[in-house]
Specification:
By secondary structure, the protein is of the alpha/beta class. It has helices at residues 10-22, 34-50, 64-74, 80-100, 116-124, 139-152, 165-175, 192-205, 222-228, 235-251, 312-320; strands at residues 27-30, 104-108, 130-135, 156-162, 178-182, 211-217, 260-267, 272-279, 283-287, 292-296, 301-308, 324-331, 337-344. The longest helix is centred in the first third of the chain and has 21 residues, at 80-100. Bound molecules: S-adenosylmethionine.
């Protein structure tokens, strides 16, 4: 990795984090300075457009407009995921608290933290003071979540971390015993090799006293899956286009977003939804921070996200390869989604 894009030194993050934990109030800690974030976005856009097939990193979907659009997606009638996972949390939050005990809550990719409220209430029912550490690259979603939780639950100490997932893994040991969460089927956005790396790092960062709660979307009918990512109101299509609007705003790209079609289709072999931007006219991306031009031809597709679907009978043994064993399994009546409570196996 180019030194200028390196994440802040783990020791610096750990030190700021220790100070925040020792302090009385709630705070938000920020990672890379803004110019480094823009350079990172430009570099990743160039390498993604030059790759074969062209594929961009989905973390860039979440600027403040993207996070606001994602929140609207979760309210669309076709998008069953958020409602279903909320119902599982509503029914099982107290049981999860019983199983884990009074651990610190750490949430990766926390977004608006709305569903986490079920867990915060279950924790507060058993203790006056609770510590919650949401982690998200979206500064706006994180700020909104932190201020809402502070206003709703004065008993919760909130330390918001505006960082990437892997940057906070070294902090888990500092707050152990902890329940680390990854909800909303966010794990399904990771390609197989990325998911293996993520789980290996997660397992290596956990002590046997920590827990990992992961939400997954289960394999189901193509029609239901494709409807969820092609909502009739067109909000998911706007979410796709916003990635390129963000390039215009932050990188000076000058892309015509009207030349972009949103394509989301189910790949039944790999059991994943593939989301693409298809270009109806040739577009030249000018990446101002790099001084480079890259052209995408008419009819070409750029993959912007995947959303993998899982089968528990395969996923549970797969998790065991990383030393993660099931302590609790929670699903809805229709078996659409699942929450797995995992613990690192001893040895
Ligand atoms: C699919 S949304 C899920 C949000 C929320 N957890 C939910 O269940 O509704 C993914 C969230 O992860 C955040 N995110 C994406 N990539 C990230 C990364 N590499 N590091 C930290 N946060 C990330 C996004 O900003 C977004 O809020």
């Amino acid at each position: 990795m180019d030194a200028s894009f390196a994440s802040p030194e783990p020791q610096i993050i750990c030190r700021s984090f220790r100070d925040a934990m020792a302090g009385g109030g709630s705070v938000i800690l920020h990672g890379r300075p803004r110019p480094d974030q823009v350079q990172d976005f430009a570099r990743c856009t160039a390498s993604g457009l030059e790759a074969t097939p062209r594929r961009l990193e989905c973390r860039f979907l979440y600027d403040s407009d993207g996070s606001a659009l994602f929140e609207q997606i979760t309210q669309q009638p076709e998008y069953y995921l958020t409602r279903t996972e909320s119902s599982i949390l509503a029914a099982n939050a107290a049981r999860i608290r019983e199983l884990t005990g009074a651990v610190t809550l750490v949430e990766l990719g926390s977004g608006n933290s709305e569903k986490t409220d079920y867990l915060l209430r279950a924790w507060l029912a058993r203790a006056e003071r609770v510590c919650y550490i949401p982690v998200d690259v979206s500064e706006s979603a994180l700020a909104w979540a932190c201020s809402t939780i502070r206003a709703t639950h004065p008993g919760v100490k909130v330390i918001g971390m505006n960082y990437e997932y892997q940057e906070v893994f070294p902090l888990i040991a500092q707050v152990s015993p902890a329940l680390v969460m990854l909800l909303g089927s966010t794990i399904g956005n990771l390609a197989p090799a990325e998911m293996s790396r993520f789980l290996a790092s997660m397992a290596a960062s956990m002590t046997p006293d920590d827990y990992f709660l992961v939400g997954v979307d289960l394999v189901k009918e193509r029609s239901q899956l494709e409807a969820a990512y092609n909502d009739a109101a067109g909000v998911t299509a706007s979410f796709t286009r916003n990635l390129f609007a963000r390039m215009n705003r932050e990188l000076g790209c000058a892309i015509d977003t009207d030349a972009i079609e949103h394509v989301a289709r189910y790949d039944a072999v790999n059991e994943q939804i593939d989301i693409f931007a298809r270009f109806t006219r040739q577009q030249t991306f000018f990446l101002a921070p790099l001084g480079r031009h890259l052209t995408v031809g008419r009819g070409e597709m750029v993959q912007i996200e995947i959303s993998r679907k899982f089968r528990l009978e395969q996923f549970v043994p797969y998790l065991e390869q990383f030393g993660l064993a099931i302590e609790g399994l929670f699903t809805d009546d229709r078996k659409w989604c699942a929450l797995l409570l995992l613990r690192r196996m001893a040895g």
